[in-house]
Design goal:
The protein is of the alpha+beta class. The chain has 12 helices and 10 strands. The chain is about 50% helix and about 15% strand. The two termini are about 35 Å apart. Bound molecules: flavin-adenine dinucleotide (FAD).
């Protein structure tokens, strides 16, 4: 759909990402997904395009400016490779970059950000614990002050990129129970007392890694406290907003793949003497998918406009993320129907996207939690 927000710069950025994805990623996604990883070189190649530099100071290797539309364009175009695991592997770092830029000491920023933004090294944000992820205020990992150090104890799980990350932002309890006792820490994996294991046999996102992290008397310097002590909950909540916008854009890209693959298949496949695309039921499925894509895209553009305008529409982002993942669920399911038995075979984008719907609907705030947040933001 045409957008009033399109500019020459954004169109050029979209072209660059689209061409890169088509040439360097899409032809390889089946192999990478089956192998369970992407080559590290891809982090560096796409990092060189500046995709992780938004809102990061130029002195730390960033772009020195932000543009929510370009963030969304990057996530949408990357999702068009048809494998969410690629985006997860590359962008696991994204949710930790912003807290590092905003809250870490200048020494840490100077050391870590150029590595992360360029793609030379990975970073992860670790909030979820084996005991639960939705109720962030109930986290139990502790950080006890001991002289010039904090001592961390506890576990984190489902941490995207966590097996390869060389930098972590970890949430831990430094104070009272509830949301007023949480802080964020910068932790490096060679710290004594830190270990990690991979989560195996996932439903989707095969070519990305997720880790469980273990901290047993893991001592980090007091300077690794990020931001104010006990003010981490708000930072975590604020960080979710741009993660959710990225997930909306990723869902949009995946929906477009479902539509395009369905149209191509329906033009080619003949049943009852005519191509599928000439059967009215199939045409209506195409129309239903297309109208959901248009609606999601329009909503995403309005969110980007508001964010660029200095706002952070928390409730609208939450609702839009639910809307996007519900629409993705619909498009993936209808695309599978149009493909029939062929859709059930491994190695095609529709089958993969269908398996990846649920992680989009759960990660970054589940549909239930986001509906609840939206209603609370209405003052109810
Ligand atoms: C592939 C993958 C990658 C991930 N990457 C990361 C990462 O990089 N970093 C990180 O910190 N976390 C990550 N997560 C964790 C993710 O954020 C959590 O899975 C998510 O927040 C939900 O937490 P949970 O799985 O513990 O579910 P729970 O909190 O146990 O909830 C279970 C179900 O109950 C529902 N529910 C919970 N409370 C309520 C309520 N009050 N009312 C109604 N329904 C409710 C939830 O919506 C959910 O459907 C990842 C998860 C996956 C699967």
């Amino acid at each position: 759909m045409r957008s009033p927000f399109e500019t020459g710069e954004r169109a050029a950025f979209r072209d660059t990402i689209r061409q890169f994805v088509a040439a360097e990623i899409t032809p390889n996604v089946n192999d990478w997904d089956e192998a369970g990883e992407i080559p590290w070189q891809l982090h560096e190649m796409i990092g060189a395009l500046g995709v992780w530099g938004f809102a990061i100071d130029e002195s730390y290797g960033g772009l020195g400016f932000d543009d929510c539309f370009m963030r969304a364009i990057y996530n949408e175009e990357l999702a068009k490779c048809g494998a969410g695991g690629v985006a997860a592997a590359l962008n696991g770092r994204m949710i930790s970059i912003e807290p590092i830029q905003r809250l870490a000491s200048s020494d840490i920023k100077a050391r870590a950000l150029p590595d992360i933004v360029s793609g030379h090294k990975g970073s992860s944000l670790a909030i979820t614990e084996p005991g639960g992820g939705s109720d962030v205020a109930a986290m139990t990992t502790s950080a006890r002050k001991d002289g010039n150090h904090f001592v961390l104890n506890g576990q984190k799980t489902f941490i995207t990129g966590g097996m390869k990350a060389q930098y972590f932002v970890i949430g831990a309890r430094t104070g009272v129970a509830g949301l007023d006792g949480i802080s964020l820490f910068f932790v490096e994996p060679d710290t004594p007392g830190f270990s990690r294991t991979a989560i195996e046999r996932k439903m989707g996102w095969w070519c990305s890694d997720q880790a469980t992290l273990y901290m047993e008397n893991c001592r980090v310097p007091a300077e690794n406290l990020m931001g104010e002590e006990n003010a981490g909950f708000l930072a975590i909540m604020e960080n979710f907003n741009l993660e959710r916008v990225a997930l909306i854009a990723g869902a949009l890209g995946a929906m477009k793949v479902c539509l395009e693959e369905s149209i191509a298949w329906a033009k080619d496949r003949v049943t009852f003497g005519k191509p599928l695309i000439r059967h009215q039921v199939i045409r209506h499925k195409i129309a239903d998918m297309s109208m959901r894509i248009d609606a999601t895209e329009s909503l995403l553009n309005m969110l980007c406009w508001q964010i660029n305008d200095g706002g952070m529409p928390v409730a609208e982002i939450a609702k839009a993320k639910v809307f996007a993942t519900k629409n993705l669920e619909f498009c993936a399911s209808e695309a599978m129907q149009i493909f029939g038995g062929a859709g059930y075979l491994r190695g095609n984008a529709v089958e993969r996207i269908y398996r990846e719907v649920k992680v989009m609907a759960i990660g970054g705030g589940s549909e239930e939690i986001l509906r609840d947040l939206a209603v609370r933001q209405m003052g109810l």
